[in-house]
Amino acid sequence: MVLLKEVYVDPSLEANPIVQRIRQGLNHLPWHSRADLDRVIQELLSFHADPCGAGKHILLIRPFQGRLVKNCPGTMNHICCNYKIINVVTNCPMDCSYCILQSYLNNPCVTFYPEFAEVFREIEEIIEKHPHRIFRFGTGELGDSLILDGIVGFADEAIPFFAAKKNAILELKTKSAEVDHLLFLNHRGRTVVSWSLNPLRIIEEEEHLAAPLGERLQAARLCADAGYPVGFHFDPLIYYPGWEDDYRTVVDLLFEHIEPRQVMWVSLGGLRYPPFLKQVAQERFPGSRIFSGELIPGEDGKLRYLKPIRVEMYQRMVSWLRAYDGGLFIYLCMERADVWQEVFGSTPGNTEGLNRRFEECVVRFMKGVQ
Predict the structure, then answer these.
(1) What span, in angstroms and rounded, lies between the C-alpha atoms of 177 and 228?
(2) Cβ count near 310 (within 10 Å)
(3) Quick check: 218 and 180 in contact, CB under 8 A?
(4) Which of 62, 154, 298, 319 has its CA 20 to 30 A from that of 69?
(5) Number of CB atoms found within 10 A of residue 68's CB
């Protein structure tokens, strides 16, 4: 991957077959065996003017301390989708101005944890305890799911693993177009490949090193043609003069590439961030204009657009999306029940209620692909 410049690996993992495969794929890069990887991180944090930017060119391969599969942390008094996060990779080589990882990861390097067998063991433990529930797992919360996957190879093992499960599905969430290695895997409709979308202007100005919109949509078309369910995330939605025309154009382009019946779900979420992210982001991206809008602290302490602005954006997005398919499954990310009520005229009530809606959505979709 041309974005990476060097690799550091914990000596205890050098003989790991997954690490050996990665080394073959990155044999053009300097490769360092270091037992003191925390020292590498501290040197970067202490001596580099932009450790966030520099860390995106460094790959660390190290053991993971603790459980590799965790619940989405959610937000107090907001409805969460009850997602299960797989911690295989943290951080990514892309550099979006609004990325929250800039502000709270104490390790700015792209970091890979190669314990796939332990990931699958923990997933088995979760799904076997509740065989009548449907669980959703994904790798796209702390890093992009696919930008490095052609090298690290998690999907090659995870997609067949989930294909054999009756009550679990995998979501691979990305801003890349790196999907060629997925197209011939046996997925049985149990993996959803999803893309974060924004207008051309936002991608060009704020989503640095991410794939252009057209490439993302073409990649989605390839995956849909290969039988994968696909998903789309309009998160963050960014409010600015002319946003309506720009986002409606994205919706129209989406359905020029994808049939609505191929879409498992669409999420909507307004721009939100902890207060300290603004200073970090403005220092790193002085040309960014998205932090100059009128945002106020919410119950969770994150800065958000005023409720009437968020509701207006959600309502318009829902109307544009459902003009293509009135039954499209659309959900809000980290919003209160009162916002759901204003947008949809109903609310799942709480996190458990939204989780039931997801299970019903998955069951309906699976019946259509079997």
Answers:
(1) 15
(2) 23
(3) no
(4) 298
(5) 19
